[in-house]
């Protein structure tokens, strides 16, 4: 995928069929839009393209309402590349961009930078200063600046509209199954493996301790997970505890910890950077009487995780 981080860098882009948005999470609604873009581009011999923004526009125009993000801009771009988007402009969202009128935005960004021939957006799409532009304005300006505007229907799953906010709610509630359905992949977080306090290796079971900058974390509890080494691609079936280790809590407000036990042999050096995919919620986190009781519960959790992987099999879980 060809990537530009300014309108000037996008000068080398070819004529495009494109969609516009933040696309946090790259959920099934976004994936449907990208499919329409690919089809439209193929029909006119143009490039399938995306215009997105960094940071999220709300961070500039309404910081107190800015959402916690499911994905970084790098993750979004990687997912869009997997979905065969050919060129993406990540436009730095500044106060200057926020002040553009609808016509200035269409003229300078869509027509001049992106060379738009077809623009596909959802029916609730709004753009430009104070969201003054809607789909009607976009269609009228498109006629003036040489592109066709198409309106995509909303995508629904299990009776709900697919949206980034819906996915956030599922993850917050620990509903990994619904998050998986809306993303068409397991929700995941990534980061650095850091040293723990050594309690697991001494008293329960050894774990990998994750330090992550992820803004959206599953609620406290135990999950069946899959762990991937970000450096060499190794993968392991695993079980992960997100929480505050109440059995060993020595502080009034203990920090959140994310601890993963690998069900498969490590076979090599311990990973330094990992991604954890959340597949299935097992149970709430709770305090145990002692380390022995916790260890017994962990081993029970491990058996449940093993049953999960045997039931689904490697083929169904393949990403």
State the main characteristics.
single chain, 319 residues, alpha/beta, Rossmann fold, Elongation Factor Tu (Ef-tu), domain 3, 10 helices, 27% strand
Please describe what this structure looks like.
The chain has a six-stranded parallel sheet, with helices on both faces. A six-stranded antiparallel barrel has the order 9-10-13-12-11-14. Strands 7-8 form a two-stranded antiparallel sheet. 37% of the residues are buried. Helix content is 34%, strand content 27%. It has two domains: 2-155, HUPs (Rossmann fold); 186-313, Elongation Factor Tu (Ef-tu), domain 3 (Beta Barrel). With 319 residues, it is α/β, with parallel strands linked by helices. Mean pLDDT is 92; it is low at 198-204.
Distance between the termini: 20 Å
Overall morphology: elongated
Q: Over the alpha carbons, how many angstroms does the gyration radius reach?
A: 23 Å
The major β-sheet equals: 6 strands, parallel
Helix content: 25-40%
Overall tally of domains: 2
Q: Quick one: CATH superfamily of the largest domain?
A: HUPs
**Can you count the beta strands?**
14
Helical/strand content category: alpha/beta
